[in-house]
């Protein structure tokens, strides 16, 4: 009872003093965590003052001061909490950001940017150790397949770059130079709409046609101007690779990119429906044989023929519908409505005379201003 009667600061000091006494009913950090979780944003300074000792002795429980699913906790100013953790408990900044983004659906770009930068910092530090430990002549494994923490954090980084829609790639791209973490850089370039630069990495740096096609599959959208020609960009990358020095600063040795006609022909055959046929053919070398693109041409012609048949069927159906509507129009136009001097309105019982009138489908005629509900026909009397 003593603790609850004191001001927050005094109560927390009592909890701190009692936490290490063996025979005290207030021993441990659990009550401090529970107390801090109920203080709310108006006591943020007190939370920052008394949470560090819990964060030091039990980081996992201490982090619950800022991540427990309670209204008082969820409404704490997240930018200030993040700054507090980064300054004194940087290893907890990542789990805090993961919680507010994945659990509380935080969409602020600044939080997504910082999480990527923190992932990157961990990956870069672990990558140096990993590369140094590789025996001479042994190549690094594919991105995300590294063992231990490196693989864990790199997978998180790759996944977050792929699924998050809130980070700002233009602000982050400079943190991913061309001398490493190429898969991550390609994801950023793709988010920026720089498809040819991203495909250059997959095709001519990583030499991975599978990843290049997966990239095109993710980004292709026939209704979006910047994405509808992504397969055409892949075709161009195979047939007319750009000069290495045209793609920005590169801090690694690369051989001059070579054309790959076979890979280009495979793209033509497998993705002909997603390519502009004329533009694709214009990219092919002048000495390309007809037999080399026969499968592509046959597929295009078959697709065009099927499209023509579908359009013809659709045209016939639309023509039939047009004739039906025309017949219905003629039928309704043939119906006459004779207004005599004795014709009265079925609503107000007054003569129609020269006033504007309305006729219901059942033939009942009323003054136009008496027609309140067009869906309910007055009965003929």
Alpha carbon gap, first and last residue: 84 Å
Helix content: 55-70%
Kindly state the mean pLDDT as a whole number?
87
In the predicted model, the low-confidence regions spanning at least 5 consecutive residues are 1-5
Strand fraction: under 5%
Characterize the main sheet.
2 strands, antiparallel
| Structure summary, number of beta strands | 2
Shape: flat
Spatial strand order of the main sheet: 1-2
Encode the helix/strand succession as letters: HHHHHHHHHHHHHHHHHHEE
Number of helices: 18
Could you tell me the radius of gyration in angstroms? Answer: 36 Å
Task: Look at the helices and sheets and give the structural class.
Answer: mainly alpha
Membrane topology: Peripheral membrane protein
Domain Vacuolar sorting protein 39/Transforming growth factor beta receptor-associated: 11-55
Protein name: Vam6/Vps39-like protein
Keywords: Membrane
How are the elements arranged and paired?
Elements: H1 8-18, H2 30-37, H3 44-50, H4 52-57, H5 59-67, H6 71-74, H7 78-88, H8 93-102, H9 109-133, H10 148-163, H11 169-172, H12 182-191, H13 195-205, H14 209-219, H15 230-239, H16 261-270, H17 277-283, H18 294-333, E1 357-359, E2 365-367
Antiparallel strand pairs: 1-2
Helix pairs in contact: 2-5, 7-8, 8-9, 9-10, 10-12, 12-13, 13-15, 15-16
Description of the structure:
With 381 residues, the chain is mostly helical. Helix content is 55%, strand content 2%. The protein has a two-stranded antiparallel ribbon with strand order 1-2. A hairpin with a 5-residue loop joins β1 (357-359) and β2. α12 packs antiparallel against α13. Keywords: Membrane.
